[in-house]
């Protein structure tokens, strides 16, 4: 082994050099990551923000997104636009955000299908729902409501179950399509109630309503917003809600869980950024969203179409998605969906 080379006079000893080098490297690391990200967050936003809605315009998620975008724009001082990218059971819009730049300028406001459900339906997902997004906020929840036409003579949840058990395979339930939340909600209801009713899929809730009112299909468990006007007009009878407690718009309608303990399957909207977006940017958008969701006019607007504003930190939203994963997986299993149904 070679002998150590003596340090020349007048030069720093090796420990000092190492300390200098370490300090320089540490400084560069801080400048390259720790300091630049907060500075970027402090400057955010510097360009327009897009909120992608993976549904056509006019639906519940789209309405929620537009209310949120309008107020976020005022709060952030930069243009916030809503872009509709429907198709693929929300996979098209969700993939566009999952693969977007990780800078906070492209966000997704999606539903259970976007974040947890589709992985249990499609054998080859274009992205990993568990890891593709950085959750920002639970924007809103909107319960499903169990409705039937007054002409059916069914006046309660217990009446429906009793009738279905007396006539297996005769009653029908409508949905907005295969794997729609209304399909899964009805399948889970069948399983938990121990009944056999026939699923009738439509191309959206709006197409099923007329047959429900006419009594051509017996019931549905679908989003409250689109059904609320028909409940208020008396054309449909609300028997139960899918939330754990009665909802403000239907205070006298009991939870389905009051008859089927443990039944809970409500829809919701979560705002998320691509995974890897700087945490400081995610937290900034989350904080501003939380403020927006407590504004009285925002609450009034969202409740008018059946949504309840919520809010929540990124950590709380991530925990919420984790808990919902188990709930919706059980509903998909109850529905016994065949991927061939989508071809």
Please describe what this structure looks like.
- This protein has helices spanning 14-34, 36-43, 60-76, 91-98, 112-117, 157-166, 181-193, 205-214, 224-232, 279-292, 296-304, 314-335; strands spanning 49-53, 80-84, 106-110, 133-142, 144-148, 172-175, 198-201, 219-223, 237-241, 267-274, 308-309.
- With 343 residues, the protein is of the alpha/beta class.
- The strands form two sheets. A six-stranded mixed β-sheet has the order 2-1-3-10-4-11, with helices on both faces.
- Helix 3 (60-76) crosses helix 10 (279-292) and helix 7 (181-193) crosses helix 12.
- Residues 1-39 have low confidence and may be disordered.
Q: How much of the residues is beta strand, in percent? A: 15-25%
| Architecture per CATH nomenclature, i.e. the level-2 architecture of the largest domain | 3-Layer(aba) Sandwich
CATH topology of the largest domain: D-Maltodextrin-Binding Protein, domain 2
Overall geometric form? globular
- Sheet with the most strands: spatial strand order: 2-1-3-10-4-11
Family: Belongs to the UPF0065 (bug) family.
InterPro entries: BUG (IPR005064), Bug_dom1 (IPR042100), TAT_signal (IPR006311)
Pfam family, one: TctC
Protein name: ABC transporter substrate-binding protein
Quickly describe the structure.
With 343 residues, this protein is of the alpha/beta class. Helices cover 43% and strands 17% of the residues. The model is unreliable at 1-39 (pLDDT under 50).
